[in-house]
Amino acid sequence: LNDADLLGLVQTGDRAALEMLYRRCLPSVWRYVYARSGGDAHAAEDIVSETFLALVRNRTAFQPESGTVTGWLIGIARHKLADHRRAVERADRRPLAHESRELGSSSAAVDTREQVLVTLERLPDEERQALEWKYLDELTVADIAARLGRTEKAVEALLYRARRSFRELLPQKASGR
Amino acid sequence: MNATGGNIMDREHEHEDIERMVKAAYEAPPPRPDFVESLGQRLGRELDLATAEGLGKPGAAPLTARRWRWAALPAAAAASLLLVLGVWLLRERGDPVPARNGQAKKPPFDIPWTPPRKVEPEAFWKQYGKYFEPAFLKRQGERIDKDLDVDTLHLVNIRTQVVGQGGTLFIDKSGNVVLAAPYPLASEFSEGLALVGTKTDFKKGNRITHYGYIDRTGRIAIPAEYESGTSFREGLAGVQKDGKWGFINRKGDVVIAPRYQRVEEFRDGVARAWPDHDTVEFIDPKGRVLFKGDGSVGRLSEGLFHANLTMPDGTQQRGYFDRDFKLVIRFDHRGKGLWPARCGEFHEGRAAVEIGANTWGFLDRDGKLVIPASFRQVDNFSEGLASVSMGPGVLDPRGYIDRWGKMVLEPRFVSAGSFKEGLACVLIPLEDEKDAKKHPAPEHAGASKAVPRGKWGFIDKTGRVVIEPRFHSATSFRHGLARVSENPFHVGFIDRTGAYVFQVHEPTYGFDQKR
Fold first, then answer.
1. B460-486 burial, b for 16+ CB within 10 Å, e for fewer?
2. Which residue has the higher pLDDT, B284 or B429?
3. What's the mean pLDDT when you consider all of chain B?
4. Three-class SS state of B137
5. Among candidates B192, B190, B248, which has minimal Cα distance to B224?
């Protein structure tokens, strides 16, 4: 069953399907949120919780033709991250840690990391997802194809496009070339 | 080297570069096991609640009657098709996540992988189906030891794809199956009663529509006439009727009439209740409103709760309030007073507060910052220790501090749970050289070490590993047992020696079972 199939079962109230979908998507969502919350695990836990709760509450809103389930979840997480930033700023009247780091850091390594994150953010959801599954989850092309409900050839083409886009969008300084 | 060879080499280098950069950018420790487990359970409850509430209620996509008719047809057809497809796949493979090209699917985290054991449907149901037979269920109340505290039982869901087949098993600390609840949903016992969802409405998208409570004999003690419910605490449980929440007592009598959008369980004689989305009330067991505030009002813990209130005269009162709703720890952003960005609950006399950007310390009950803000990540204190990490790196190892901030277990764990019953689950990095070579140090992240790989094990308070790291996931000990898994399709309970007292493969996502 691919992710969209599982979400179909979740829409019918299937708790076991939800558990499986949650365990599949959690690593991607966790990584995305953690990296963008400046490595703040407390905030990341809050945002990841809100993201998955939004999935359950709006489970009928997903439209398979508009992307992958993980891509949809990442979209929700993006909004939750923005909400979180605004809330912290309101409460604290101070810019967030990672924002100040973006502006004022002198660390080349951190700068590069931010540039890579920004580049990944600019990729289409599906391309970013394919790179993450390939390099972070170490899924095979066959695994990715099964998860997306595509052929292996289509996934190879997707990975090719993703690498090309990444290369084109990444600033030369960050790529080290 | 010819041009073609050069291109291939360049491409390979480029792939490696991209791989290294992506890995470095997303360098992150795995989420805490307690968090993963509790969020998973919360999502399950939320789904049950959402399906019980129906698609037309807030939070779900609004459907007009006309749209609903049109939406229902393809949804029903798609669901049937998916079910048939799923059943076919699962029967073909005997594995809930079909393997491709003979390879088992990888685990979600970067942890050495134990392939799931293939379970034959007949063997599975022969082993567990007997507990849901009428003969067992009818007499289970007679077999239960009258001295057994049912609140200490652990539960595991056993289900197949056949609708209504299976249920929840309650096991004791020796791994014996003590009770079985043949319902779509069951929660752990609390104060001798367990919430169960008894009926699923197939016409309304498989929603659980009836919730009640079973007693220690497994019989329904409070009839399933509610749309949802909470566990019993301090003699009361929250229940939902006609969309509103109120409270019942152990006899099932309504003691606080349903009028709230949401409620929490009672603690220290008060409960938080939400009459509307933006208002929080603390109520007593008779339903009297003791305190009213906005969404900033935190949960009462050890007699204190955090709130940030704007008073009628426009002044701001922020800090910790006591059980009499007096501001006993005041935060003031003027002058040199503390003004934490975020505040946690009190546990063992300490509350975590974020002072400065993403740096945490701990307050005592007098509001004094007894542990200076020097930690990047902190957990609540439990059994005298709290897990923390220091420094700016996202993968900094975790250690444990005591209540005065002294590092008593040096940071060396990738992730670390709370101490419970003298033990804590920790993610221990592998020291295998081959493994380290497979994952070279990311150059772009400013980190000087490889992304750690590891397995979960358990340590005691001296830091000695008492249960060898061999688990894919683990949670803290509770009533003598810890829930662990060796892969995502396995659940087991181990005792303090690390031996399994109960384990099941493919516990919650079964297969088409013909009986």
1. ebeeeeebebebbbbbbbeeebbbbbb
2. B284
3. 78
4. helix
5. B248
| Sign of CA pseudo-dihedral A4, A126, B487, A55 | negative
Taking an 8 Å cut-off on Cβ atoms, the answer to whether A30 and B333 are in contact is: no
The pLDDT assigned to B109 comes to 41
Cα dihedral B449, B36, B188, B479 in deg (nearest 10):
10
According to DSSP, the β-strands at B177-181 and B166-171 are antiparallel
ipTM higher than 0.85? no
B59's tokens: 């939070």
Q: Phi first, then psi: give them for residue A39, nearest 5 degrees.
A: 70, 25
User: What's the rounded Cα separation, in Å, for the pair B215 and A120?
Assistant: 53
B498: left (phi over 0), alpha (psi -120 to 50) or beta: left
3-class SS letters over chain A? CCHHHHHHHHHCCCHHHHHHHHHHHHHHHHHHHHHHCCCCHHHHHHHHHHHHHHHHHCCCCCCHHHCCHHHHHHHHHHHHHHHHHHHHHHHHCCCCHHHHHHHHCCCHHHHHHHHHHHHHHHCCHHHHHHHHHHHCCCCCHHHHHHHHCCCHHHHHHHHHHHHHHHHHHCCHHHHCC
Cross-strand pairs, B459: B424, B465
Cα distance from B28 to chain A (closest Cα, Å)?
A: 6
Report the run of H or E that residue B225 belongs to, with start and end: strand B220-226
Asked if residues B257 and B274 have their Cβ atoms less than 8 Å apart, the reply is no
What are B106-131's pLDDT values in tens digits? Answer: 433 444 455 556 667 777 788 888 89
| Residue given tokens 């009162």 in the structure block | B317
Give the pLDDT score at A118.
80
DSSP letter assigned to residue B509? S
> Which site among B21, B68, B84 would you substitute to test the A interface, given the most A Cβ atoms closer than 10 Å to its Cβ?
B21
In this structure, chain B runs to a length of 515
pLDDT digits (tens, 9 = 90+) for A118-154: 888 788 878 888 888 888 776 778 878 877 778 888 8
Sheet architecture: strand order including B154-159:
B154-159, B166-171, B177-181
Are the C-beta atoms of B32 and B415 separated by less than 8 Å? yes
CA distance B11 to B6: 8
Going edge to edge, which strands form the sheet with B500-505? B473-474, B482-485, B490-494, B500-505
DSSP letter for each residue of B17-73: HHHHHHHHHT--PPPPHHHHHHHHHHHHHHHHHHHHH-TTSTTS----HHHHHHHHH
Give the type of residue at B502. Answer: F
Compare CB distances from B86 to A5, A34, A56 and report the shortest one's residue.
Answer: A5
CA–centroid distance for B101 within its chain: 34
Q: Inform me whether the C-beta atom of residue A149 falls under 8 Å from chain B C-beta atoms.
A: no
Q: Residue A147 has what pLDDT?
A: 73
- CB-count burial class (<10 Å; 0-12, 13-18, 19+) for B91: middle
A5, pLDDT greater than 80: no
Angle formed at CA A78 by CA B278 and CA A4, multiple of 5 degrees: 105
Chains A, B: CB contacts within 8 A come to 207
